[in-house]
Amino acid sequence: MITLIGTGHVFDIGARVREEIRIRLPQVVGIELDGPRYHALRTKHKDRRGTPLVYRLLADFQTRIANEYGVEAGDEMLAASEEAKALNVPLALIDKDAQQTFVRLRKEMRFGEKARLVGSAVVGLLPILPGKSIEKQVQEMQEDYTAYFVEMEKRFPTLKRVLLDERNEHMARALQDLAERNERVVAVMGDGHVDGVQALLAGRGLPVETVRLKELRAKAAAAQGNATATLTMTIEGDPPPPRD
Predict the structure, then answer these.
(1) Residue 75: pLDDT above 60?
(2) Alpha-carbon distance 4 to 17, whole Å?
(3) What angle, 0 to 180 degrees and rounded to 10, lies between the N-to-C axes of helices 111-122 and 53-68?
(4) Residue 6 forms beta bridges with which residues?
(5) How far apart (Å, rounded) are the C-alpha atoms in residues 5 and 103?
(6) Residues in CB range of 172: below 8 A, 6 or more apart
(7) Is the C-alpha dihedral spanning 101, 128, 221, 59 positive or negative?
(8) β-pair partners for 78
C-alpha cells in the first residue's frame, strides 16, 4: 500500500502529518524534496544565488503566507523526516532535482509567461487567480484542483508542465520503485500533486490511499479546539471527583 499525504507548505499541520505517518507503520517515508532543498530546509539556508526569478517569487510568496499562519514554509516536510527518524525507517527524497527544473524553466518559459507571473507575484497574490483572499483560493483549490490547473495551464503552460506534470511523473516513478521493495510506503507531498501522482500509480496497478490537506487542517483545528476546551475546564471548572 502506498499512502499519499497531501499537505500545504504554509500550514501548521506538522503534528497531524506525524500522526498519519505513525499509525501506518511505514517501512519507508518519502517527501517532496530533493537533496539540496532538504539540506537547505534543515539548516534554514537562505542563499538563493543563481535561482531563477520565477522560483524566487514563488518561494517569497510561500514564505509570506506561511508567516501569516505562524509557521515556516516546509515545516511539514521536516515533521515527516523527524517521524521517519523516530520510527527508525529510511527517508526517501522523491522529488526531481531542483537545479534541473531551474534549467528547464529558464530555457523554456517565454517572456510573456514570465511577465504574467512577475506581475501576479508583485501584487502579493497567488500567480493564477488574482483578486481573491488567500484562504478563499486555498479552499477553492481543495474543492476543485482540476479547474484550478486548467486555468493555470492557460496562463502559465510551461510552469504547469515543468513544476506539476513532470514532477508528478518523477515522484510516481520514485514511489513505484520504493513499493517494489517495501509493502508499506508513505509519501508526503503538496496536496496539488496528490491527484496526479495517484492517477499515475493507479494506472500502473499499484494500490493507493490518500490523506488530503483538507482532512489534516480539520483535524488540526479540532485538536486545537479540544486543547483550548480542556485548558478552560482545568482553569475555571471544579476538579473532577476521584474515581473509585
Answers:
(1) yes
(2) 11
(3) 20
(4) 189
(5) 29
(6) 196, 197, 200, 201, 204
(7) positive
(8) none
More confident residue, 152 or 28: 28
Q: Residue 180 corresponds to which cell in the numbers above?
A: 517494489
pLDDT tens across 116-139, in order?
Answer: 766 665 444 444 444 455 556 666
Q: DSSP H helical segments within the chain, as ranges?
A: 14-24, 35-43, 53-68, 75-87, 98-108, 111-122, 134-143, 145-155, 157-160, 166-181, 191-203, 213-236
Q: How many other C-beta atoms can be found within 10 angstroms of the C-beta atom of residue 226?
A: 10
Confidence of residue 59 (pLDDT cuts 50, 70, 90): low
Residue with cell string 499562519: 69
Flag the least confident range among 94-103, 129-138, 146-155, 229-238: 229-238
Least confident of 25-39, 103-117, 197-211: 103-117
CA distance linking residue 150 with residue 130, whole number of Å: 15
The model's confidence at residue 233, banded by pLDDT at 50, 70 and 90, is very low
**CA–CA gap between residue 134 and residue 125 (Å, rounded):** 7
Q: State CA 88 to chain mean position distance.
A: 23
Residues in the chain: 244
Rounded to two decimals, the pTM is: 0.76
CA distance linking residue 203 with residue 224, whole number of Å: 38
Residue 63 buriedness (CB in 10 A; 0-12 / 13-18 / 19+): middle
Could you give phi then psi for residue 4, rounded to 5 degrees?
A: -105, 120
Q: Residue 185: what residue type?
A: V
